[in-house]
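User: Please write out a complete single-protein record containing the residue sequence and its fold in token form, without commentary.

AI:
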Amino acid sequence: MRIRATLLILLAAAAPTLAANQFSDFYVIPAAGHVNGRSGTTWQSDIIIYNFQSTPITVEMAVVDTGVRVFDNVSPIQPGGASTITVAPGATLTLADVLNDHRGRAETMGAILIGADQPFAVVSRLFAVMPSGSTIGQTVSPVSDFLDNVGFVGPGVAFVPGLAANARFRTNLGFLAAVSSGAPLVLEVSLAGRTGAAIGTTRTFAIPAGALAHLFFSSTVLAGVFDEGVARFRIVSGSGAVAPFASVIENSSNNAMFLNGGFPPGTSTTSGSASFFREVLRSAQ
């Protein structure tokens, strides 16, 4: 089922100026960073926030570091040292290279959690700055629905289509997951080809209770060459929130396309999620 409050609570725990119930709107940017790339390039993320309200909004952000850890890999993002960001009515705010020097580190990669006290619009771009100063990259669309299986009969499942791994393209897969204090979350990732038949192998991730995971991996760990593919992210057991995604890169130009997960009909929220949210909040403190 799809949920949004789980990661909203994590944002409140990391940057607690606003209480969790004061966030009127919340999104995840599934992939963001400031890291060095090949041939002298630097990958970085810009965040653009638009306040369509008639009054100012107060925004808070946090980053979940790449890896599988307990909740201490969530830290607030504080542009200019401020714990909150105020965006004036009708204004657009661009936070350029938002993870540069985050926590004094040369490199940071992960997912960004962003919430505000009123609804707002947000978009992000993850791109490489070439030695010449030109850039190439991809729009990373924000998400507010997350795969879960709390109260759901049978495993939760999401799909990411539009994948390829051949002489022209390569594909990287990834996900952000938050796991409560129960059993580990077991997540399967597999590929299907043009006809829907399975290709390659299935990879299983066991994410410990009380942990966050933000992972990237090449599609080659699942299958070799394929021209058209779809990734399936399936929760086998345990309780947690998962935001799946993929990036398809053209080999010759390094131009990339970012893809978020899609959910089949029937993956809706139920009242069984409330206790899960409280568990996640306690684990994060």
Summary: The CA atoms of residues 13 and 285 lie 6 Å apart.
